[in-house]
Design goal:
By secondary structure, the protein is mainly alpha-helical. Helix content is 58%, strand content 8%. A two-stranded antiparallel sheet has the order 1-2. The protein has a two-stranded antiparallel sheet with strand order 3-4. Strand 5 and strand 6 form a beta hairpin.
């Protein structure tokens, strides 16, 4: 499973020391026309997609058809819509700079203490998975601590300190969008330059020879500054996901300000999404074994996506409810709550089954039975052969990615499939034969 040295890599002193072979698994080495077309489409249109959704809420009360119809009928021009769009402000820039700096401080300066007094929580220094070059990185897991400190300060301000209004995020929502875009593009560009000139580990870099693919999908596997500041872990988890629940709280505060009450639908959005965010941080050590950390390189896809796509599109439900305060009937509210909890149950139990199987090396019971598994072998770029097992019991016996519960994750599912096939080869073919469905049993 070794690949020849790629001549498209830059001729830097770091890259010239790369061994003559590297692992094939992980991000792609070569770019086909379909992948390139997808990359160009996202680079060109993803920022406009985010802008369109936010603009539609700001100018058209969240109607997605109204601006299109106005443009088609000639009632407005694009320049008219743009002229009504709030621009970058000094206040928003100060808020965003303070926010990111605060999260960097919590990430770098405060080692985790939560694992010392929270039973079952795994924090502190933890090891990641083996990279394609055979490296095992260490991480400071302190996301739950950062989330708790941030939200305690937010609640203390809302209740006692009054340094800023709870609606501050909503009130600066579009100016903050420009700040998030600036950071997303800046960190993505820096990561690409770093990959060429001074990579953290040259053996874990990949160059396709295509600038756009390298920029979007990333060159470095684990770009770092110093020993502990890991770009992937920080931007995947902070500042976007910590902000997620604060954004929803700010939307709820704005709904209260505008309409005099907070609807049960807004409460449901806050509660159900907070469950997901807390689950993420409670299981941050487990997150080190997921596709984001184990396979994705750090480029625009993660850098801009974590800064802009995640906080601005994943919170659209709350933004809509600011403009349309929906009060659900009790049975409907209960149904939404139960459906959300059911989805979370499948997601959490599926992930728990895989984690239990990994931690015990298969010496456990899943659904009351000894688990089935496919033994497999893969090779890292240092020539070392590694043994692993693919779980084929429990939810993982029904489908290969039953923990993916949204249309957006279908693409992630397919990427995961491609990389696993590259990593495990024939062993992956045996696994797919044992578990034939990707996402929905009997359908897909």
């Amino acid at each position: 499973m070794a690949a020849r040295f790629r001549p498209s890599a830059p001729h830097t002193s770091a890259a010239s020391s790369v061994a003559a072979s590297q692992g094939q698994w992980g991000r792609a080495w070569e770019v086909d026309w379909f992948s390139l077309a997808s990359v160009l489409f996202l680079l060109l249109f993803a920022p406009f997609i985010v802008y369109f959704f936010i603009m539609a809420c700001d100018q058209y009360a969240c109607s997605l058809t109204a601006p299109v119809l106005d443009l088609a009928a000639g009632r407005v021009r694009l320049s008219d819509i743009w002229a009504k769009t709030p621009s970058l402000t000094k206040e928003a820039a100060q808020i965003y700079a303070l926010w990111v700096s605060f999260q960097v401080l919590l990430y770098m300066a405060l080692p985790d203490v939560c694992h010392r007094f929270l039973p079952g929580y795994v924090g502190g220094v933890q090891e990641g998975a083996v990279t394609p070059a055979g490296v095992i990185n260490k991480y400071e897991i302190n996301g739950l601590q950062a989330w708790l400190i941030t939200h305690l300060l937010w609640l203390a301000n809302a209740r006692f300190l009054s340094w800023f209004p709870p609606t501050i995020i909503f009130d600066n929502w579009i100016p903050l969008l420009w700040c998030a875009n600036i950071l997303g593009y800046a960190v993505s560009t820096f990561a690409m330059i770093k990959g060429y000139l001074f990579p953290t580990n040259a053996r874990d870099c990949k160059f396709t020879g295509n600038f756009f693919y390298n920029y979007m999908m990333g060159i470095e596997f684990n770009p770092r500054i110093g020993k502990w500041f890991d770009f992937k872990l920080f931007f995947n988890g902070r500042p976007g996901i910590v902000a997620w629940t604060l954004i929803n709280l700010s939307f709820a505060a704005k709904q209260q300000e505008l309409h005099g009450h907070v609807t049960n639908s807004m409460v449901l959005v806050n509660v159900l999404q907070a469950i997901y965010v807390l689950d993420f941080f409670w299981n941050e050590a487990w997150y080190l074994k997921t596709i984001d950390i184990c396979h994705d390189h750090f480029g625009w896809y993660l850098g801009w996506g974590d800064c802009v796509w995640l906080p601005y599109l994943y919170t659209l439900q709350g933004l809509y409810l600011v403009y349309h305060p929906v009060q659900l009937a009790a049975p409907h509210a209960a149904g939404v709550l139960l459906l959300g909890l059911l989805g979370y149950y499948v997601f959490r139990v599926a992930n728990h089954q895989k984690d239990l199987f990994r931690r015990t090396d298969g010496r456990c019971l899943i659904w009351g039975r000894k688990p089935k598994a496919i033994a497999c072998v893969y090779t890292s770029a240092d020539g070392q052969r590694h043994h692993s097992k693919l779980l084929a019991s429990g939810f993982w016996g029904l489908a290969r990615h039953l923990n993916y519960m949204a249309v957006l994750l279908t693409h992630r599912c397919l990427r995961d499939e491609h990389r696993c096939a590259s990593k495990y080869g024939g062993d992956w073919a045996r696994y797919t034969a044992a578990v034939p469905y990707r996402l929905l049993p009997g359908i897909f």
